[in-house]
Amino acid sequence: MRTGRVLIVIGLLGVTAAYVRAIAFTGVEAVQGPAQKIMYVHVPSAWCAFMAFSLVGICSGLYLWLGDRRLDTFSEASAEVGIVLTGLVLVTGPIWGKPIWGTWWQWEPRLTSTLFLFFLFVGYLTLRRAMFDPAERARYSAVVGILGAMLVPFIHLSVYMFRTIHPRPVVLNPEGPTMPGAFVATLLFSLSAFTVLYLGLVTTRYGLGRLRELREARHVSAA
Amino acid sequence: MFLLREPPDNSAFMIAAYSVVAVVLLTYSIMLMVRVRAEEKRER
Known about the structure:
The complex is a heterodimer. By secondary structure, chain A is mostly helical. Chain A contains 7 helices and no strands. The two termini of chain A are 29 Å apart.
């Protein structure tokens, strides 16, 4: 768990450095103005949230196959961190949308499906709290975790599948990055910082889950 | 002929977004460490 705490501190320092780089050392976009810089926190939050939920899906599938409780504990940890990051995506998106689109929210496919993903994983954690038998809890939540993770590729591709006002990916698109090199460098720097922070948070949350599991096991054997 | 214009001044939105992200990440990180500390205390 010590590794997790160290990674959290490094990640937070990295995000601070990304702020400094974005605000002071990256140019202002001519059309959107300073609001464009919201992308340097919005996109990394989204990438890490989608990575977190994809890992929930993978680990849940592996749990159903192998039955290793640690995979279930990791899924819970990754889901919790993913919810926090998706919350950031859902808050920073509208703050960018107001000056650029002229509205805080649009019920269009990318935004709506991201909101559904958020609610789905809040439901996932609620389901976990509602069930007391560890094996049953792990099995049911694994199924919900897999179904939730299946939304992730759909959300990524939604901008190609539907007519939408949400911008298309600026880095991960078939034509290559569609931004100036300095903007891409700042975005990748911020993405690295968020990834380290995600690793720190998920490692620490996993450690917490293991501690609780051990206590639960002791209660059961004592009863 | 080029039409030059200043970018719009919407830095308040950027500051708002960056502040929300900083507060949420810091609060969640601290809360997580507090929860771990409490669980470790319970262990002992």
